[in-house]
Design goal:
By secondary structure, the chain is mainly beta. The chain is built from 3 helices and 19 strands.
């Protein structure tokens, strides 16, 4: 069993490990945390737990997750930046939809956005009048950190820009007898443009694991060298410049919408669906890893150029 947890307080300190999401919804605890009585969320169980009921959780020696294991770790990418020299290959992306300009960086054989996406995808859902937000609803936070998107927005479920992720998200729920059921997108390994600009795509779980040197690797090389709380800045030696943009939850234990973890943690949606209600995301703090999470939370987006460089 594998049980995954997320903390929903206003201040978050989290070190999480997992052996991946399982389709049968069974779970057990594998990880290490420091919580101080905060409320934890289990993705697979769709329930909240008190951290006071957990103690002495140890890190698993297993590095297995969906699509990667200790025997199939990605190739380590050589850093392009040091404290004294920057040899990274940067570029510029102009989003024709709103004219916003983003810095890009070549990492290995791919080109990544070196900033979080800030496109205002405002399609309503069945319960919300939007599907992306600025942290604390403050436009200044969008300028620095980009927007926080539901998975349905990340996938462009409304098919505003392509049919790649059409109807993917929370809209695929339906009544089956006396229960509410939902249908998976079944997108498999297709590349998904999603909310990204033309010619770019939403990274898969494999893409994120590759750029971050694999599951549970140190996050220092992809974290920005400024902006992280408690002197936890990274080296940004790959030029990806990951900022701690936090997360948005409309399903918090406090009974209200909550923005949390700015300055502490970065969360990025991937294009990989785990179940009809959950998708995989990239977690960046002291380490980087992927796990699954309910599609009903808002996370950051980075886009990847869909032309593989030789």
């Amino acid at each position: 069993m594998t049980r995954r947890f997320f903390v929903f307080p206003l201040l978050i300190s989290l070190l999480l490990s997992s052996v991946g999401c399982s389709d049968d919804k069974s779970s057990n605890v594998v990880g290490q945390s420091s919580f101080s009585g905060d409320t934890l969320y289990s993705c697979s169980q769709d329930e909240f737990y008190s951290s006071t009921s957990l103690s002495d959780i140890s890190i698993s020696s297993s590095s297995e997750t969906k699509g990667i294991s200790s025997s199939s770790a990605p190739t380590i990418i050589i850093p392009c930046k040091t404290e004294t020299e920057d040899n990274c290959e940067y570029g510029t992306l102009v989003d024709d939809r709103d004219g916003q300009t983003y810095k890009t960086v070549k990492i290995g054989n791919q080109i990544w956005m070196a900033e979080n996406l800030n496109y205002a995808y405002l399609q309503p859902t069945s319960t919300l009048d939007s599907s992306s937000w600025c942290y604390d609803n403050d436009p200044e936070n969008c300028k620095k950190y980009g927007r926080l998107y539901l998975w349905s927005a990340a996938m462009d479920s409304a098919a505003l820009f392509s049919d790649d992720g059409k109807k993917c998200g929370l809209e695929r729920e339906f009544q089956c007898g006396t229960e509410l059921c939902c249908e998976m997108c079944e997108i498999m390994d297709r590349q998904i443009r999603g909310v990204c600009p033309a010619g770019w795509r939403l990274p898969s779980e494999k893409d994120w694991l590759s750029v971050s040197d694999g599951f549970y690797a140190s996050a220092s090389s992809i974290k920005s060298d400024i902006g992280w709380n408690d002197d936890s800045n990274g080296t940004n030696s790959k030029g990806l410049n990951v900022l701690p943009a936090g997360i948005f939850s409309q399903r918090s234990s406090y009974g209200a919408d909550v923005f949390a973890a700015m300055g502490v943690t970065a969360y990025f949606w991937t294009s990989v669906e785990m179940s009809c209600r959950e998708a995989y995301y990239m977690f960046v703090e002291s380490v980087s890893l992927t796990d699954c999470f309910p599609k009903s939370v808002g996370m950051s987006i980075r886009c990847l150029k869909d032309v593989i460089l030789e």
